[in-house]
Automatic annotation (TrEMBL):
<dbReference type="Pfam" id="PF02687">
    <property type="entry name" value="FtsX"/>
</dbReference>
<feature type="transmembrane region" description="Helical">
    <location>
        <begin position="83"/>
        <end position="106"/>
    </location>
</feature>
<feature type="transmembrane region" description="Helical">
    <location>
        <begin position="498"/>
        <end position="521"/>
    </location>
</feature>
<feature type="transmembrane region" description="Helical">
    <location>
        <begin position="359"/>
        <end position="385"/>
    </location>
</feature>
<keyword id="KW-1003">Cell membrane</keyword>
<keyword id="KW-0812">Transmembrane</keyword>
<dbReference type="InterPro" id="IPR017800">
    <property type="entry name" value="ADOP"/>
</dbReference>
<feature type="transmembrane region" description="Helical">
    <location>
        <begin position="752"/>
        <end position="776"/>
    </location>
</feature>
<dbReference type="GO" id="GO:0022857">
    <property type="term" value="F:transmembrane transporter activity"/>
</dbReference>
<dbReference type="InterPro" id="IPR003838">
    <property type="entry name" value="ABC3_permease_C"/>
</dbReference>
<feature type="transmembrane region" description="Helical">
    <location>
        <begin position="846"/>
        <end position="868"/>
    </location>
</feature>
<dbReference type="InterPro" id="IPR025857">
    <property type="entry name" value="MacB_PCD"/>
</dbReference>
<feature type="transmembrane region" description="Helical">
    <location>
        <begin position="811"/>
        <end position="830"/>
    </location>
</feature>
<comment type="similarity">
    <text>Belongs to the ABC-4 integral membrane protein family.</text>
</comment>
<feature type="domain" description="ABC3 transporter permease C-terminal">
    <location>
        <begin position="362"/>
        <end position="482"/>
    </location>
</feature>
<feature type="domain" description="MacB-like periplasmic core">
    <location>
        <begin position="507"/>
        <end position="711"/>
    </location>
</feature>
<keyword id="KW-0472">Membrane</keyword>
Amino acid sequence: MSFWLRLSNVFRGERLNREIDEELEAHVADAVAEGRNVADARRALGAALRLREESRDLRLLPWLDSLRADAVLGWRQIRKRKVASAAAILSLGLAMGACTAAFRIIDALLFRPLPVAHPEELYALQRSGFGFTGKFETDDGWAYPAFRLMAEAVRGRAELLALGSVERVDVSFASEDDIEKANVQYVSGRMFVSFGLRPAVGRLFGGAEDDLSQPQPYAVLSHHYWTQRFGGAADVVGRKVRIGTKVFEIVGVSGQGFTGTEPGSEAGIFLPVTMHTGAREAGWTWMRTLVRIPPGTAPEQIVARVAAVSRAFEENRAKGYRGLTPASIQRFLDRKVEIRPVWAGVSSLQKEYRRALQAMAVLVALVLLIACANVANLLAAQAAARAREMALRVSIGAGRGRLVQLVLVESGLMAILAAAAGGAFAAWAAPFVVSHINLPDDPAQLAMPVDWRVTGFAFALTVLVACLFGLAPALRASGVQPASALKGGSDPHSRRRLMYGLIALQVTFCFVVLFVSGLFVETFHKLSERPMGFVPDGLLVVDATPKQPQLPVVWEELTGRIRALPGVESAATSCWPLIGAIGWNGFVSVHNGPPSSVPAYMLAVSPGWLETMKIPLLDGSDFRPDAVAPGVAIVNETFVKTFFPGERALGQTFRRVSDQFQIVGIVRDTPYQGLRAPTPPLAFFPQHELDKKGELRPVRSMSFLVRVKGDAPLGLAPALRAELARARPDFRVTNVRTFQEILDGQTLQERLLALLALFFTVVALLLAGVGLYGVLDYSVLQRRKEIGIRMAIGARVGDIGRLVTGATLRMVLAGSAAGVGLGLGAARWIESLLFEVKASDPRMLVLPWLVIVVTALVASMPAVVRAVRTDPAKTLRAD
């Protein structure tokens, strides 16, 4: 009989039985026709049941038929216990869905290979060592002139590719007034060829774009951007796009699937790297360098050649350094050139969120373990209730392996149903989490298709979960002793010990989840409540750019127009807003001494900027309208403490390179680049800056700081745009945002971790509470006779309560104690994600313990009530 026929017979059991019965009756009929009586014919054939079973085994696959039968029985058991099964499936589904969602995000950001030819050959160049500030750091930024020298040094052995970061900039296609945002990436002309990419329309860069002597203002669109923005129109080739002051011609569209080399950021427009403003600047380290190393080439040889060229380039550049100590220069030159594989691409988002995603993965794994322990307890209780059934199966010949299979198949069905529920949850959860990684107007963009990687993970997770919560009950059920079980069971205390052990494990994991979640929530709170030194409420930041750099008087004129608008309280300008992720620092000298080893940070501002920001002056005065730089400066408290300790800094002077400044004011400390960083020494300079000829420098871009009356500052945005366009048509407003949005952008990671932590805390507590309730309820059921006897001889309510909850509460305390050790170890691992929070703080340790104890008490109440309501007479008569 063929395999496929035997396979099909497994799923047509009733029809197969009828066919076998008909065949047996045909044999009997043939014997009767030959002269035998019916009884002799049946006796000659043998036992009908044995014949039917032997015939079935020959006509189907016995192992598959047993699985089918176990699946049918398992489904009946699940339907029989609808409430308990639904609770188990939903809790598992929630945990499995969280695991799958976490995998989709981590895979998309860290592990999914780029859709290019041979991504395993790609490496990124980086330098690690001590920088000018004396801190150890890893940097992957390179200057394009250095890149050209390095690329020439390894030509024929490896290929170097220059790639800028994906930037969100203003672009215009139709007219200069029709401005929109797009993601732009500057790339080597050889990138498309090296990656083996083909055009969907037009052509791609071929390498000629890398010639600095012949700039080629061409652009290539990504397939995704082309279909979204232009609907896939073929006539996009030849159109012009203005970016900044440059106009580019669109020459083609890349093939489907490739959106750049930065996971988390999709590039819509690719531009030649030679068209970047910093392409000729030796001191502008703005681009990453990828290396394609073919098989058979030793990476160490490539690194050695690149390192030698880089060292020579930096030594030559260091000759022009001013205001730096020889030691700091030497530290900078001694940085080590390294490579690391980047088959999944390279982006700042990977570096920023790697540890946060790892922490999220650990949290979801702990929640999954809690759910598995919870369901294992449920199955253990059910296995105890089915002890007599299992004993009967053993008595009629079922082997241990058969019983293990029976329970595991039921566990597998529950895992499959949970996986289906978890898949629906993961489909929503993964995009939801990704949408909170970046600001709402520029969310992270990750490729998270449901492909073989995701389905393979989900399948492996389902098998693992089925084994985690089903194997122990299956082994325990298969080890039943028929004689003892049929008499009423052997050792109920043994079953309870297993369940109590699982409770302790649940509590341990739950404590770790609560403890780590508390650290994340406290970090977010501390960061959000950090003293600003200024008032962000009611403050608008308006970024504007003219076609050509303008003198400061033009910016002052526009500031005056803004001040005159209804609803505006005050207005001023600065090169960029505080906490805007842009920095400018240098080393200063005081008292005619050498440059300090501590860098000072700078910011150019207009008169009235301090008033608009509401930064208090502690001493001195604001800039006068005719103040220029170099000349005068206003410094913060940290600047005074660092460079003038114990002195009155007002009126003192300091030098930056060859420029001298006199301190005319001292202000309160404020954050500079980020909320996490400690407040640096900060000096404010007048935005009227003189060049070497003593003439005012024109300004390329500025940020208007506008203090608005009322509670809805963004309501004034249209009027601001209209007024600037009316006053100076050559100015473009590139962005209008509240200062609160900038602050929110500084706490995105912390907010996301706090949000996820609270979610996992609620889930963990629910699972732990349900698990505790199940164990206590089972305990009361098993000990009802003992409880009845104790009540009959005068036990009080408190005694019964202690009897029911005593062992469980001891397990809660033991699990919490183990959780403290695990939690403190986890805190050291996530220390870089915390801010001004100490894991050893008693408050952080006591709070999770209190929450777990309260949860345990609430979960125990129904069981205690049931126990104290036990009727001794009725219970003893029943037994």
